[in-house]
Write a structure and sequence with these properties.
Elements lengths: L1 H33 L17 H6 L14 H12 L5 H8 L3 H13 L3 E4 L2 E4 L3
Antiparallel strand pairs: 1-2
Amino acid sequence: MPGFVDSTVSDIDSRIKELQNELTKLQAARSALVGGSPARRGPGRPRGATTRTTAAKRGRPGRPRGRRGGNTRSNQALELVRKQPGVTIPQIAEGLKIEPNYLYRVMPKLVSDGLVTRDGLGYHPVAS
């Protein structure tokens, strides 16, 4: 039995050495294609990155920062509930193409505002 364990450990060690050599070759090939070492990154931002103020100073157009206002997601979620009564949060998220975790804040607010009601997991519009 000890001979089996020793030979197995030796086989594993030789395979690890082969894989380390292969890893070194692959990293060198990647470095040649991409440039730089994948494991080492220099300090600071990557080349070409600019701050918002720098971009603004250069006169680059962009969208204004800050909140959009007007409860846009709430309105979109409410519209979806009106179109599909009984819809669940994951279904709403899929329809709006957003992550569902955001809707776990939006939907209770719509319930407290009296715009929708909750029945189990589904949401229904309040009759006008």
